[in-house]
Amino acid sequence: MTRYCPDCKQDKPVGAFGVNRARPDGIGPYCKRCNCNRVQRFRDGKLRPQSGPYDDGPTMADVRRVERAGAARYHAAAARLAATTAGVRPVRGVQ
Questions:
Q1: Which of 17, 21, 31, 59 is the right S-S partner for 5, CB 3.0 to 4.6 Å?
Q2: Percentage of the chain with pLDDT > 70?
Q3: CA–CA separation, 35 vs 14, rounded Å?
Q4: How far apart are the first and last CA of the chain?
Q5: pTM of the entire predicted model
Q6: Rounded Cα distance, 76 and 36, in Å
């Protein structure tokens, strides 16, 4: 039994496709190799989701860039706080 992969445009044996229990036949729409390539492109930010609430939203690369910027701001603020409280001793009885 074969199945058509819309990414590589080839008929392949059903064993070349992954499992997808959400689909009526239980077989994924793309062959394992194409699915792996699609996931990698999505993670690299070169492929946007085709449907859903993120159609015109940011790519994964945009999300990672914002996360890194937020982490940098957090660490900079923590360093400033540590520098301003470096010579201050705690009040007795307060921990």
A1: 31
A2: 76
A3: 14
A4: 71
A5: 0.48
A6: 37
Range with the poorest average pLDDT among 16-30, 33-47, 54-68: 54-68
| Alpha helix (H) residue ranges in the chain | 32-43, 60-84
The tally of CA atoms less than 13 A away on the side-chain side of residue 85 is 9
Q: 78 in helix, strand or coil? A: helix
Cβ–Cβ < 8 Å for 45, 60 = yes
* 30-38: long-range contacts, CB 8 A cutoff, minimum separation 24: 30/5, 30/6, 31/5, 31/7, 33/8, 34/5, 34/7, 34/8, 37/7, 38/7
Q: Three-state SS for 80? A: helix
40 with 46: CB under 8 angstroms? no
3-state SS class at 14? helix
Q: How many residues make up the chain in this entry?
A: 95
Q: Are 28 and 38 spatial neighbours (Cβ–Cβ below 8 Å)?
A: no
